[in-house]
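We include the entry.

. . .
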Amino acid sequence: MKKVFFSIILVVILILVFITVAISQKNAESNSLKSFNSEYEQYLGQTLYGTDILTIINKAIDNNEKYAIEKDNEGYYLENEENVVKVELTLLSLDEEGNTKEVTHQMERLNQIGLDKFIMSFNLTEFKCTNIEYTDSGRVHTIYLKQQEL
């Protein structure tokens, strides 16, 4: 009788240990996700300048290289629903008729042209983080930035 009782107690203790470890691991993953997302969410709705845009792009590039995200033959990061972070930047320009038009660039294109040139041209220009898209798991996937003035 004592062996059965101790066996039952041992099984219950083991189940509780496994449940506690699983909950702890889930909480750690959740905290890690919140910490990662907050690095980008702090910019949402804020007025930003060229140096801020450079910081966001560098964070995204560092993330993509950390997770060894592959690039296509044009140098653009391939879609990876889990780890890739992309930045889309909408710049304003004037057409021949003097009308303002919006041109969207991927961060990879700006990196190819040269981020130093971008900073020289847009250092004091105001931008706004207009939207952030997330993966199905809730991780930041795409950050949308828009120039606010010409």
The chain has a mean pLDDT of 92. The radius of gyration is 23 Å. Helices lie at 2-41, 50-66, 107-113, 115-122.
